[in-house]
Each structure stands twice: as structure tokens, then as C-alpha cells.
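User: Need the bound-state model for magnesium ion:
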Amino acid sequence: MEFIYEVEGGNFIKAGNASSAVKKTLKQLNVDPKIVKRTVVALYEAEVNIVAHAYRGSITVNINARSIRIILDDDGPGIPDIELAMRQGYSTASPKVREMGFGAGMGLPNIKKNVDELNMSSIVNKGTKVEMITYL
Amino acid sequence: MSKQQIYHALKVDNNICYGCTHCMSVCPTDAIRINEGKALILKKRCVDCGECLKACPVDAIYVEQDDWDNIFDYECRVALVPAVFTGQFPTSISEEEIFSMMKELGFTHVFQAEFMVDVLNELLDGQIQRKPEKPLISTFCPSVVRLIQVKFPSLIDHIASVKPPVDASTAFYRKLLAAQGIPEKQIGIFYITPCAAKIAAIKGIGKDGEAVINGVINMSYLYNKLYTRIKNSKKEMRQLPVLPHLSSKAIQWSLTRGEADNMKGNCLAVDEIHNVIEFLEHLEDEDIPKVDFLELRACDQGCAGGVLLHGNRFLTVERMKRRAKQLGSENGHVNWKDHKDIIEDKDLFISKVNPLPAMTLDEDFAEALKKMERIRNLMCYLPGIDCGACGSPNCQALAEDIVQGKANLSNCVFLQRMMEKSNKLSSEHAIRIIEKTWGKDRLSKDCKKLGAKNEGM
Ligand SMILES: Nc1ncnc2c1ncn2[C@@H]1O[C@H](COP(=O)(O)OP(=O)(O)OP(=O)(O)O)[C@@H](O)[C@H]1O
Ligand code: SF4
Ligand code: SF4
Ligand SMILES: [Mg+2]
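Assistant: Bound-state model below.
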């Protein structure tokens, strides 16, 4: 089963809407609460990354009997050095974003911690693609 | 997780209900349906918040209580009163006067539900420090506890294990009376409840054979009884009982911030059921900054907004604050430590709270997935008007009811028109469907209904 959500860059008020919708779905599907929590936390971080760092993006969620597979695809500046971006505490967030409580550089490490598989690819000045998989 | 465990105090009086959908649309857990013209509360989903009762225009929803005469089954008849009860009376009437009149009504003892607050406060502080799951969520409001069981099972581990004041005070007082030589069987403790949730919680426990509270009396019922008496009293001198005064903290405990203001650490209070749900959603997503303690109450203004209270909740809060101030200067602090020896752990701690998830489509994941696929497909056809004319609260809920085998697509009044147009449904059949949901003759002229020409005749 597939679900698609649009994400608007820069709109922090709506950040988290897709995560909430996915959470509701997973709960209805009686997925183990611990897995729901992990998945939603990871998705939320990735969703906020689009809002904070990119211009726009889409989230595609695929659920089947074996796994939850989520792909976040955005138009944005891209990430020049993914390995560096993955480091705890690394952030290019502007002071304004930090003021809002984001920009600790913990997002990507947190995603990694909460999903079973994480694949990232990015093209500078074009966009970033994040794939995360959680096995059921 | 057997079904009998779930007790609900909110009931629909089918003689009064006229199937207007008001309760169905306000229910925060989508627990109400209309069937044969009457509201039906789905037990698995109901959290006893009382929103439906507040919304019903004809008072068809009521809170089941024990028969008043039941108190006379006991020789020692204790009324356990929460502070909000006295908060409804003007401050010119003292607590002693109110309680002495309760005795005239038949109680032999009056005791305060918040008596144990200081002990519980200390225990909660300890748990805040030790518990890995932050924030610690208070057990005070049973409707919130039920809400977490039903809708937020992943947050169950956040719930504190410290008993709410009513339960702890009851256990304590029962022992105090026993220590005074009163035989256990003669002690009847009756809780004067501000809400349906407390009743449900009280009736839900005691399955381990230990009846803690013997019965429940609705606050509105007792208020009326007492107020009539006050109004007609001939002002003769009463012998006023000596009571352990509550501390000003204990008096305000059931109000919003009553707990949060007294707990150590970063404490937050959220009241009103929809606000609570919104907050718990955030908590589940972990997008809440560090909070140590969460006070959550189903009612706006805490128990001052309980469904069985008389009068305006803001005025009740105001009066309780004034009472608390008066007491503050009287220094009526009770030292529970004097009785420390009779208190046992089981009087202070609850047993484990189990998840009772009721929002899932199926226990089996593969089955749930199939159902969800069907729902999404059905939603392509349902008009998204969320009018409730199908007897379910909204289109999504109807789709869910359909896949659960409890409703049909033809329950939707708009789809009925489409079906009639394409000759898939005869108009007689359509009317039968409507009568099934809304009751026979529902569409016939009736000038006695609310708002009509002969309303109430
Ligand atoms: N979708 C994206 N598009 C462009 N850059 C991104 C994207 N996601 C992450 N980045 C880059 O990777 C860095 C690290 O991301 P990470 O989520 O770990 O931290 P953060 O977003 O800066 O702060 P936090 O998530 O803790 O609030 C970001 O500062 C940003 O430069
Ligand atoms: S609100 Fe309407 S449908 Fe609900 S119980 Fe009252 S009369 Fe019946
Ligand atoms: S806030 Fe108080 S009155 Fe309201 S449901 Fe909870 S315990 Fe009952
Ligand atoms: Mg981030």
C-alpha cells in the first residue's frame, strides 16, 4: 500500500504533518508501538530536514507485510558530503533555524539509529533522496 | 484483556434520545454511532470523558450511580468528598456546615478525597527522578489513563504507578476506621463523584476481590439534596464536626496546575480532552522538549469542569482558591505521618496499566492492511461531507464500519441517491435503510420535536 505526501520547504508550521498521518496509519494497522515510534521519529526528522534545508519535496510510504519503506525526495541544495552530514552535531543550520530549536546536527544520526536501513544520495544544487526501511 | 473489565458509567436513555448526532460529532474517540434512531456508545472506545453528556441537548446521556439507599446497608457510612464539591457552594457556607448537613442526610462520617495528597506528592517526586520514561504522566484523571490505554498504547510506560488521591485516601480511611475498632463489614465508603470517569475507574477495579470503594454518588445529586436543605434550613444551631482540614495545596490539587505546580522539575499541565489528545500526539512523535512531569485532565479547568458539577467552572475555581487562602491562614495542615504505620504499599500504588488498543483495524497485521486498502478504496466513493447522516461520525468512520462489517455503503445518503439514479436501489429500499439508522417514522411530520411548532408538548 502506498501513501504520498507533499512537503513545503520553509513551512515549519506544517512540518510533521506527514509523520502524524503515517503514525495514524501504522497505529490502525496494529504495528508494534515500538516500531511505530521508531519509524515516526525517523520520518519526522527527515521531514523537518526537507522543511529546513530544501525547497520542496515528497514523501512516499510503502507498507507491506514485511516492511515499511519510506522515500523522501526533495528539490534543494543537496548535500555535498553525506558522510560529514551524518556526523553527530554537524549542521549548516542558520542562526534563525537554531533559534527555532532545530539545527543541533542530530537529525540524520537519529534517523540512522531508528531505522533498519538508511540509504542517501544527493546531487548538489538539485536535491536529496533519503530511503529508510524498517522491517516488521 | 477480557471484556468484562471495561465498565462505563455513561449511559444513553433510549426513551429520551432522539438521535440528533450532537454527541456523535463531539466524541473525541469516535465512539458513538446512531442506530435505530438512538445513540450507541462503543464500549471499547469510550474513555468516559463526558463530552457527549455535555453536548446532548435533551440530557439523554446520564451517569449511572448507585442507589442512595445503598448507603444504609452499612452502619458506618462514609462520604468521601473531593474538594470541588465544597467549591460549588458560596464561601459564606463553611465546610463544616456542608459536612454537618451531609450527616443529617445519613452519612456518619465525612472524609476528604484529597487527604493523602502530600504522601502522593512525595512519591511522585521520587518517580519523576527515577523513571527512565520522561515525562511521567499522572494517574489523577482516569479518563486520561483510559485514553492512553485506548488511543496511545505506546505511551503506557509513562504512566506513574502512584494511586490517585481518591483511591489512596479511601484505603487509608478504611484502615483508620478499622483501627478504631469498627468491623470491616460495617464500613461503607461512598465516593461523591464529579464525573463519569471516576465511577468507571472505581467500578473497573476491585476484581482482585478487594472492594475499596463501596459505592458512588453523583455530585449533582448530592448537591441538589444539600442545597434544598440549606435553602430550607431554619438556622438552628448545629453541632459542627471537627474535621482534618486540607492543606491549601490539597484543596487545589484537582484544579488545573494543582499537581504540576507542586512537582519537582519541569512540569506541564494540559486540560480539556481535545487538548490532551493533541499533546499526546506530539509526545508520541517525540517533538516535545524535555518535560519531567505531565498533569493531564480530561476536563477544562480540571475537576472544576467535571460533568456532574453544578454552576460555572471558572467561578468554582475562583471559590476554591478563596477557600484555600482562608485555610492557608488557619494552618489546618494534617500530618499524615502520625498514621504512617497503617499505610501499606498497596494503598499507594496501582497495579500495572495494560494497553487496550481500540483504534486498530485488526489485531492481525496482514488483515489490517487488507482492511485499510478497502477503506482507502471506499473513500474514493464517499463524498467527504462528514455529515453523520449515515449514523457514523464521518465518512472515514463509515468506511471503517463498512470493512468491519457493521455498515453498508448504502448507509451514505448521498450514495443512496446515486444508487437510485442508476437503478441499483429502489426508493422503498432507501427509506428502509434510513429507518434502520434513524428509527421508524423518523421522516414523518412531527411538530413536537425540539425547535418545532409544538416543541415539548
Ligand atoms: N534534505 C536536505 N537537503 C539539504 N541538506 C540537508 C538535508 N538534510 C540534511 N541536510 C544537511 O545535513 C546537515 C545535518 O543534518 P541533520 O538533520 O543531522 O542536522 P540539522 O538538520 O542541521 O539539525 P537537527 O536535525 O538536529 O535539527 C544539515 O545541517 C544540512 O546541512
Ligand atoms: S446528543 Fe442527540 S443522539 Fe446523542 S444522546 Fe443526546 S439526543 Fe441522543
Ligand atoms: S478532570 Fe477530574 S472531573 Fe474531569 S474526568 Fe478527570 S478526574 Fe473526572
Ligand atoms: Mg535535521
